[in-house]
UniProtKB/TrEMBL annotation:
<dbReference type="GO" id="GO:0003677">
    <property type="term" value="F:DNA binding"/>
</dbReference>
<keyword id="KW-0805">Transcription regulation</keyword>
<dbReference type="InterPro" id="IPR051446">
    <property type="entry name" value="HTH_trans_reg/aminotransferase"/>
</dbReference>
<feature type="domain" description="HTH gntR-type">
    <location>
        <begin position="11"/>
        <end position="79"/>
    </location>
</feature>
<keyword id="KW-0663">Pyridoxal phosphate</keyword>
<dbReference type="Pfam" id="PF00392">
    <property type="entry name" value="GntR"/>
</dbReference>
<keyword id="KW-0032">Aminotransferase</keyword>
<comment type="similarity">
    <text>In the C-terminal section; belongs to the class-I pyridoxal-phosphate-dependent aminotransferase family.</text>
</comment>
<dbReference type="InterPro" id="IPR036390">
    <property type="entry name" value="WH_DNA-bd_sf"/>
</dbReference>
<keyword id="KW-0808">Transferase</keyword>
<protein>
    <submittedName>
        <fullName>GntR family transcriptional regulator</fullName>
    </submittedName>
</protein>
<dbReference type="InterPro" id="IPR015421">
    <property type="entry name" value="PyrdxlP-dep_Trfase_major"/>
</dbReference>
<keyword id="KW-0238">DNA-binding</keyword>
<dbReference type="InterPro" id="IPR004839">
    <property type="entry name" value="Aminotransferase_I/II_large"/>
</dbReference>
<dbReference type="GO" id="GO:0008483">
    <property type="term" value="F:transaminase activity"/>
</dbReference>
<dbReference type="InterPro" id="IPR015422">
    <property type="entry name" value="PyrdxlP-dep_Trfase_small"/>
</dbReference>
<dbReference type="InterPro" id="IPR000524">
    <property type="entry name" value="Tscrpt_reg_HTH_GntR"/>
</dbReference>
Length: 482
């Protein structure tokens, strides 16, 4: 920090301290999510009293520039999420449709696998935000000491130490699971797969939020299941009135939802809505397959509860993994499938015998002794700041008429481009410039969202990223005029 502030008129001293910090923020020396110096440190550095610094920090808090976090200090607040309006929700569709996204998804992802591509099309945080080194060290220490246990099969329901850790954490989300409620899986994807197979067969119909994570659509397609797409609001998620109407009109075998920080919307379903969703399905004995993979990545003060917290009949099949918070490549996930537990265990055994043993051991150890809570706090702070920066950059560079979501957690943005813009054309043109994006049509069974794209904010904001947003904005403007 620069030269100390000269003590002078006491009454205005704190104004000067506040102005000093405000300037550092305005210049970008201190960025959203950065911790600002502790009260004592600044008081020593600037030769002013602790009370003066406290007064200055209060003023900065009132101006919305910084925020105090209990037991942690003061941080630069994420700037106001962009002033762009939110994307519009989809229109309801009244019929069940077959899904055919797999060839489009394969095309999009084959192209985006190139090294050096700017990965706006992915949905994963940069490895530098994950506890990569620590986890790898834990894994190698375990591998050295595990002997036969590390190379043995781990049959369902999966590693007891890991199930204990998951159960212990579930208390914080209002679920109070027991280790016996849980089956570990190969990522969340296998958990979702097993749950869907347990409750629906080829030719059956399931209800799904729209837009929907394309992985769910691919899974449904691979099982020959049909979907009814239920419109979702970018802030509050699935439209429950439409769902209720569809439950009356169709024989729906299961409902799939991502209530917490939906991919791609970032929406967060309020607790009352989760309760209504669970009750509405329970009245008709329809299972809910809940994907809570983003639940730990909230930007607010408290971890949102999954819909499972409102489950009284064992009909909610909760699925998650450590892919978005720790290590996607370890492929460690799990499900708490309620009354379908035994069937899931059998399906898991038939499908893959068990999960890889060592990665489960490493994740369990990290959860127990690795400083997981500390890691999650830092990750959430970084992601919130990155989402805010990206939203601002989009507001600055994208064509008029663009709309963008305001996620309450997670790290993707859902962008509606001006009407008539082809997201597929944007995707192809962006690849030519070394940038991947996820085009809207892969998020719908009926290839809707032709003028939407999803953008990943999981990588730290940098000049390179800002430049890529500028290029993407130009490509979108050209496509909007084409
Ligand atoms: C909503 C959602 N569910 C599941 C997955 C896949 O998770 P996993 O890597 O644990 O299989 C993803 C990955 O992008 C996702 O976004």
């Amino acid at each position: 920090m620069q030269a100390p502030i000269e003590p002078q008129d006491e009454a205005h001293l704190y104004d000067r301290v506040a102005a000093h910090i405000a300037e550092l923020i305005a210049r970008g020396t201190l960025r959203p999510g950065d911790r600002i110096p502790s009260v004592r440190r600044l008081s020593r550095q600037q030769g002013v009293s602790v009370a003066t610094v406290l007064q200055a920090y209060l003023q900065l808090e009132n101006r919305g520039l910084i925020e105090a976090r209990p037991q942690s200090g003061h941080y630069v607040r994420a700037r106001r999420i962009s002033a762009l309006p939110e994307p519009r929700a989809a229109r309801p569709s009244s019929s069940a449709s077959r899904v055919s996204v797999k060839s489009l998804v394969a095309k999009v992802y084959r192209a985006a696998r190139e090294p050096h591509i700017i990965p706006f099309g992915a949905a994963c945080p940069s490895p530098e935000l994950l506890p990569t080194d620590k986890l790898n060290r834990i894994l190698s220490a375990i591998a050295r000491g595990a002997g036969g246990a590390g190379v043995a099969y781990d049959p369902p329901p999966g590693l007891p130490a890991l199930r204990r850790q998951i159960a212990r954490r579930s208390v914080e989300w209002g679920c109070a699971l027991s280790p016996d409620d849980i089956v570990t899986t190969v990522g969340a994807m296998e958990a979702l797969h097993l749950c869907l197979r347990a409750v629906a067969r080829r030719g059956d119909t399931v209800a799904l939020e729209s837009p929907a994570y394309y992985g769910l659509l691919q899974l449904i397609e691979s099982l020959g299941i049909k979907v009814i797409e239920i419109p979702a609001h970018p802030r509050t998620g699935m439209d429950l009135d439409t769902l209720e109407e569809m439950l009356e009109r169709h024989r729906i075998k299961a409902c799939l939802a991502i209530p917490n920080f939906n991919n791609p919307l970032g929406s967060a379903m309020p607790d009352e809505a989760k309760e209504r969703l669970v009750a509405m399905l329970a009245r008709r004995e329809v299972p809910l397959i809940e994907d809570d993979i983003y639940g730990d990545l909230y930007f607010g003060d408290v971890r949102p509860r999954p819909a499972k917290a409102f489950d009284r009949k064992g009909l909610v099949m909760l699925c998650s993994s450590f892919s978005k918070t720790m290590a996607p490549g370890y492929r460690v996930g799990w499900t708490a499938p309620g009354r379908f537990h035994d069937e899931i265990e059998q399906l898991k055994f038939a499908q893959s015998i068990g999960g890889a043993t060592l990665p489960q051991m490493a994740i369990a150890e990290f959860l127990e002794n690795g400083g997981h809570d500390h890691h999650l706090r830092a990750l959430r702070r970084r992601l919130a700041a990155q989402v805010a920066r990206m939203s601002e950059a989009i507001a600055e560079h994208f064509p008029p008429g663009t709309r963008v979501s305001r996620p309450a957690g997670g790290f993707v943005l859902w962008i509606e481009l001006p009407p008539g813009t082809s997201a597929l054309a944007v995707h192809e043109r962006a690849l030519e410039h070394g940038i991947s994006v996820a085009p809207g049509p892969i998020f719908s069974a009926k290839h809707r969202f032709s003028n939407y794209i999803r953008v990943n904010c999981g990588y730290p904001f940098s000049d390179l990223i800002e430049h890529a947003v500028g290029t993407l904005g130009r490509i979108c403007a050209e496509a909007a005029e084409a």
